[in-house]
């Protein structure tokens, strides 16, 4: 029996001449927290709307088990959506907002009270039943929106950038809270964001998208440590990306030097992208055995210094993260270990 709760097969979507989704194929597992991540216009929200039934694909299908959802209207699909702007009813109090979907379904009053009370406890809003929506903070309104969606017991919860309107501290708190709720309920969450930190913090699986195409799908650790291409490396975390040549297996040339690497199975003398994370660069005394550069700027980031360095005899400027600082204008050495150099094929 398949572990997948949703299967997106060959979805294409175009608005006039703009291709939004290009043959999208995606399997989503039961009880998974999956995040669609990418820049504005990459197709992630359109994907969510197609799953919810608010948009129709030009071709392809969304399968829920053996059922094709394409002919099923939004209100009859086994999914509920939490929007960025929450869409709460201002003329109703908290209890009435959460109970709204149950009343539409003609659920008995006692059962509604029991379910709403349970949801309020789940989102830590017990005692807020009679509060007006406008009296709530942004975080509290978001919790009401989540409770209203969850009270209908959807098998899949869709969340379209629901943390975007919150301040930084509250957003970080809600990231942890959402993950706890998902784990407690054991239902599938499909979360849309352009914030890579949110995706890394909350997800079991991240799907990185660009121009309607999936660039990489994997765990947060896979996506960060082993990006599939320069786009993913640049979008997830900070990266120094330079042009290189794969001379042979385990041997790569970049920045005028030849380095041992862990990569193989490239063509001889193939042009490649070389990705180096700022935290993987060791700052050492300058010598002929290492790359050298001039310190252009130093910014204190709290847990580390962010140091911009212009490489010697090169136009490349690299970012280094280090717990130690360096004087602006000084020359430093940059040492790289083979495991810290990521070689990838150029995206054509």
β-strand number:
20
Provide the domain count. 2
CATH classification, class level of the largest domain: Alpha Beta
Q: Would you give the CATH topology of the largest domain? A: Rossmann fold
The average pLDDT value, as a whole number, equals 91
Q: Report the principal-axis shape.
A: elongated
CATH architecture of the largest domain: 3-Layer(aba) Sandwich
Poorly predicted regions: none
- Given helix and strand content, the structural type is alpha+beta
Please characterize this protein's 3D structure.
The protein has 348 residues and is an alpha+beta fold. The chain has two domains: 4-230, 3-Layer(aba) Sandwich (Rossmann fold); 238-345, OB fold (Dihydrolipoamide Acetyltransferase, E2P), CATH 2.40.50.140. Helix content is 24%, strand content 35%. It has a six-stranded mixed β-sheet, with helices on both faces. Strands 13-12-11-14-20 form a five-stranded antiparallel β-sheet. Helix 5 links the parallel strand 7 (156-160) and strand 8. The protein is elongated and about 80 Å long. The model has no long low-confidence stretch (mean pLDDT 91).
């Amino acid at each position: 029996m398949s572990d997948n709760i949703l299967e997106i097969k060959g979805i294409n979507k175009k608005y006039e001449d703009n291709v939004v989704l290009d043959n999208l194929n995606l399997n989503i597992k039961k009880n998974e927290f999956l995040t669609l991540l990418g820049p504005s216009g990459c197709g992630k929200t359109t994907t969510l709307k197609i799953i919810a039934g608010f948009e129709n694909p030009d071709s392809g299908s969304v399968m829920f088990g053996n059922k094709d959802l394409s002919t099923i209207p939004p209100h009859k699909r086994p999914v509920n959506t939490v929007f960025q702007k929450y869409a709460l009813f201002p003329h109703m109090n908290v209890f009435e907002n959460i109970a709204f979907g149950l009343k539409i379904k003609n659920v008995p009053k006692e059962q509604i009270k029991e379910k709403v009370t349970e949801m309020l406890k789940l989102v830590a809003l017990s005692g807020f039943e009679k509060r007006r929506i406008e009296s709530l903070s942004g975080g509290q309104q978001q919790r009401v929106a989540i409770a209203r969606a969850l009270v209908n017991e959807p098998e899949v919860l869709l969340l379209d950038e629901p943390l975007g309107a919150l301040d930084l501290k509250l957003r970080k708190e809600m990231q942890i809270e959402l993950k706890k709720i998902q784990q407690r309920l054991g239902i599938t969450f499909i979360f849309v964001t352009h914030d890579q930190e949110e995706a890394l913090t909350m997800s079991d699986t991240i799907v990185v998208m660009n121009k309607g195409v999936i660039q990489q799908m994997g765990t947060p650790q896979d996506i960060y440590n082993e990006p599939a291409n320069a786009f993913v490396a640049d979008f997830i975390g900070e990266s120094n990306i330079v042009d290189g040549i794969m001379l042979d297996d385990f041997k790569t040339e970049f920045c005028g030097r030849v380095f041992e690497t862990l990569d193989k199975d490239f063509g001889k003398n193939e042009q490649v992208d070389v990705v180096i994370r700022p935290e993987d660069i060791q700052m050492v005394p300058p010598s002929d055995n290492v790359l050298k550069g001039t310190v252009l700027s130093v910014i204190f980031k709290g847990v580390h210094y962010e140091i911009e360095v212009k490489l010697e005899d090169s136009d490349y400027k690299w970012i280094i993260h280090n717990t130690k600082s360096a004087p602006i204008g000084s020359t430093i050495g940059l040492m790289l270990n083979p495991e810290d150099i990521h070689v990838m094929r150029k995206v054509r």
